[in-house]
Design brief:
Layout: E1 37-42, H1 60-68, E2 73-75, E3 81-83, E4 86-91, E5 97-102, H2 116-127, H3 145-148, E6 164-168, E7 171-175, H4 183-186, H5 208-212, E8 220-226, E9 230-235, E10 248-253, H6 257-266, E11 271-272, H7 283-287, E12 291-303, H8 314-323, H9 326-332, E13 339-340, H10 365-375, E14 380-386, H11 392-406, E15 409-415, H12 418-426, E16 433-438, H13 446-453, H14 467-477, H15 482-499, E17 502-514, E18 518-519, E19 535-536
Parallel strand pairs: 1-10, 14-15, 14-16
Antiparallel strand pairs: 2-3, 4-5, 5-7, 6-7, 8-9, 9-10, 11-17, 12-16, 12-17, 13-17, 18-19
Helix pairs in contact: 8-10, 13-14, 14-15
Length: 537
């Protein structure tokens, strides 16, 4: 089960890295001199095993893996999947059986051919509950998943997913337990990368050597690592896709974003993907056009746990939402590096609509005050948040606005860590209004609406339940086309706008800075720098 709170809102610009288009783009030949090293700031990656690394929120491990691996699909500038390491990804008429044919010419960096077996073994490893992989939940749609993950923690009754079947060395099929028209969009995530045979012990476990230095099928290969210090990669000459423009990249590991930013200003690092909140006021003066704000999939919201009766009336929640001046908070606290949310799905996601929240997300303090009084809202409000996420300033401004507009008391209530919020929600403890956040696993409206709002959804920590919405989500999954599915998702947003189980606040951004040495800085749909396009020196 995936439960992940986004501590800082982040996002991604949909930029094509599409294997289906590989070799067809007008890109210059690589610079003849491979000696210059592009230096990229990252934090400490918790893991570099693909089945352990989240892929849709721009994490540090995902950034490294994006250079070392080529996914089955990339995404075009509208967020639609395009084959890359796959030659084709074809659904059956009912979108339940998917046939994946691999593009020829791919090898792992140790020389092994990339074949269907390399995907099947990797996916079965990730799906097998005793292996304890963070990305295990990605495989739950595939037939046979319950046998590998029995409820209640019992022993698995099968070692592999019955829904995976090899056709030949370049072709395999995936049978889903239920139709899902957007399954191809999942295949860009690290969970679905192939792993070489050399990654596994005879007993089927991932070798420590591989975990420390992954061997991928991507445009770069790892050539050195000092844990906690740096990771060196270089262009892989046998990669069949467009070659990287630079020959060498060094990931420099920093303890915090302030240290990385200081090195950027000093000229000791070339790329940072997180500008510290305390430097947003001066970043444009510091960097000029070397500062990039890239909108994307981060979603910050306030949730109303369903077990708190004093906030059960939707009109109370609507009044609170209308009392919040999102524009003032974005300008005053975030210096324009985030955007106001007027829907439940960020606009970078295919099919997302602006204004899906309706009038409830428009600032209207007079109407809010009247509605709150008529609905009998409580005289005192609290907003729970995690103190380790940099939320204090905007929570205090939100409380100021609620005090002024609704004429109530309001207080921010910090807890030390995100896990403390999770524990309190799981234990159904009083938390008042609570700050939560989310980012997509893959570019689909489903990746927000299902986990956050379906009954029993993996991130439905507030306990929202509406059978009408559940039915729409099921209908969308079995739709005849992604466009038809998106129409159902937009109808689901209408239900959320009526019930308002959460208040949309902001959509996040990546804040990127680069040195004068590098150009062509872009970000993929999945939130990583596209290091194949960066030019240097």
């Amino acid at each position: 089960m995936r439960v992940r709170l986004v501590v800082a809102a982040t996002a991604a610009l949909p930029v094509v890295v599409a294997g289906g288009l590989a070799g067809c783009t007008d890109r210059p030949d690589p610079a003849p001199n491979p000696d210059p090293v592009v230096r990229v700031a990252i934090g400490v990656p918790p893991s570099l095993v693909p089945t352990e690394v989240a892929g849709g929120d721009g994490g540090d491990g995902a950034q490294v893996l994006a250079a070392l691996f080529t996914p089955l699909v990339g995404f075009d500038d509208a967020g639609r999947p395009v084959p890359v390491a796959a030659e084709s990804v074809r659904p059956s008429p009912d979108s339940r059986v998917w046939t994946i044919t691999l593009r020829g010419g791919y090898t792992f960096h140790n020389g092994e051919l990339v074949t269907a077996d390399r995907y099947l073994e990797a996916w079965n490893y990730g799906a097998y509950q005793p292996n304890g992989q963070q990305n295990n939940y990605y495989f739950q749609r595939i037939e046979g998943y319950p046998a590998l993950n029995p409820p209640g923690g019992g022993a698995p009754t099968a070692p592999t997913l019955s829904g995976l079947a090899k056709v030949d060395d370049r072709t395999f099929t995936v049978t889903l337990a239920e139709p899902f028209v957007e399954f191809a969009s999942l295949l860009g995530a690290p969970a679905f990368y192939p792993l070489p045979a050399a990654a596994f012990t005879p007993g089927g476990e991932v070798r420590d050597e591989f975990a420390a230095a992954p061997v991928g099928n991507g445009p770069f290969r790892m050539v050195g690592r000092q844990p906690g210090e740096l990771i060196d990669i270089e262009r892989y000459p046998r990669h069949p896709g467009d070659p990287a423009q630079v020959g060498k990249v060094r990931f420099q590991v920093y303890p915090d974003d302030l240290a990385a930013y200081a090195d950027l200003l000093a000229g000791d690092v070339d790329l940072v993907t997180r500008i510290p909140a305390g430097r947003l006021a001066t970043v444009e003066a510091d960097l000029g056009d070397r500062f990039l704000r890239v909108p994307g999939p981060g979603f910050q919201f306030l949730a109303f746990p369903s077990y708190q009766p004093e906030l059960a009336n939707p009109d109370i929640r609507r009044a609170i939402s209308m009392a919040i001046d999102r524009d003032e908070i974005v300008a005053g606290v975030f210096r324009g590096t985030e955007s106001t949310a007027h829907s439940f799905v960020p606009p970078v996601v295919p099919g997302a609509q602006d204004g899906g929240c309706g009038p409830a997300c428009r600032h209207d303090p007079a109407t809010a005050r009247d509605l709150y009084a008529r609905a009998g809202g409580p005289a005192q409000l609290t907003i729970g948040y995690n103190a380790d996420g940099g939320h204090r300033d905007w929570v205090e401004m939100t409380c100021d606005q609620l005090r002024t507009s609704l004429r109530v008391g309001c207080q921010g209530v910090p807890v030390p860590h995100v896990t403390d919020l999770l524990d309190r929600l799981a234990n159904r403890e009083p938390v008042g209004i609570v700050r939560l956040g989310w980012a997509m696993d893959y570019p689909s409206m489903e990746s927000y609406l299902a986990p956050l709002f379906s009954t029993g959804g993996s991130a439905n920590l507030h306990g929202y339940h509406n059978p009408e919405l559940d039915a729409l989500l099921a209908s969308a999954a079995a739709a005849a086309s992604p466009a038809e599915a998106q129409a159902s998702y937009r109808r689901a947003e209408q239900i959320l706008a009526r019930d308002l189980p959460v208040i949309p606040l902001r959509f996040g951004s990546y804040t990127i800075g680069h040195s004068e040495r590098v150009r062509e800085v872009t970000v993929t749909t999945m939130g990583q720098l596209d290091l194949t396009r960066v030019t240097c020196c």
